[in-house]
Design goal:
It holds the Pfam family F420_oxidored. The protein has about 270 residues and is α/β, with parallel strands linked by helices. About 55% of the residues lie in helices and about 10% in strands. Strands 3-2-1-4-5-6-7-8 form an eight-stranded mixed beta sheet, sandwiched between helices. Helix 4 runs parallel beside helix 11 (about 245-270).
Length: about 270
């Protein structure tokens, strides 16, 4: 399948790299462009067989499926511009959460889907979130799901849980990265451990934890019980976490949902849907 990418920022580039590395696609099947064309040309330096085009219209005409990897508020004007170029058998795919597939379908005459990736997909792991429009036929759903299976565990979701699912899957790595950095900094400030050693130990702890969970030997609660011996050191640490972490995460979800509602409102004004 020939695939196009309009937008080669962070997430667009991550998807391109992951799809090539997983051998889900070959570079010569990809056509890409970016508003700053130099970013697309930098990708071509690493994958010479990729086709770079100056105009998004050229990407559409050369592709069966087109990933739109631009900011939410740039999607509507871009689709209005490209609408005459799309044909009914093509697939347009947005990767941004505030834009609904139903909104895409009001502008373009082709099939529409949403794929919300995660930075973890770059390691050919993690989950990707899929939502299909009514325009998508069974063959298209199978193609997109099969493509994302090469780099992730695809999970089909409904609009109602889009934001929380994105918080966990897509934003989650940034949230956890922040917490681990605070974890490391506190260790350095409160003890004599070097930052270098604290980073090494924390990184390997996370890798090991991930592998342990992957084996499904333990659930998260049972893993905690195995480590937390009654009257031990871990229990005292858990008490400190209990004082603030629960409210912290609740506030985090409130903040992301408030911002999401703002983005949804702005997108609705554009699409008038």
């Amino acid at each position: 399948m020939n695939i196009g990418f309009i937008g080669t920022g962070n997430m667009g580039t991550i998807l391109i790299e992951a799809l090539i590395e997983s051998e889900a696609v070959i570079p010569s099947s990809l056509t890409i462009t970016n508003r700053t064309i130099g970013k697309a040309l930098n990708i071509k330096k690493r994958f010479p067989d990729i086709r770079v085009r100056e105009r998004p219209e050229e990407v559409v005409t050369e592709s069966e499926a087109v990933f739109i990897c631009v900011k939410p508020h740039d999607i509507y004007p871009l689709l209005k511009r490209l609408a005459p170029v799309f044909t009914p058998d093509q697939i347009v795919i947005t990767i941004t959460s505030p834009v609904q597939v139903e909104q895409l379908e009001t502008v373009v005459s082709c099939q529409a889907a949403r794929v919300i990736p995660s930075i973890t997909n770059r390691a050919l792991s993690g989950v990707s979130l899929l939502t299909f429009g009514k325009s998508c036929n069974a063959a298209t759903k199978e193609k997109i799901t099969g493509l994302m299976e090469k780099i992730s565990i695809p999970l089909e979701i409904e609009n109602g849980i889009t934001r929380v699912a994105s918080d966990i899957v897509s934003c989650g790595p940034a949230f956890m990265s922040y917490l681990i950095q605070e974890f490391i900094q506190a260790a350095v400030e409160e003890t004599s451990v070097s930052k270098e050693d604290a980073i090494l130990m924390s990184k390997e702890m996370l890798v090991g934890l991930g592998r342990l969970l992957e084996t499904e030997l333990y659930t998260l609660p049972t893993l905690q019980k195995k480590v937390c011996v009654k009257g031990g050191v871990t229990g005292e640490g858990i008490k400190a976490l209990e004082n603030g972490v629960q409210d912290m995460f609740r506030q985090m979800f409130r903040n992301t949902h408030l911002k999401y509602e703002e983005d949804i409102a702005l997108v609705k004004k554009q699409f008038q849907v």
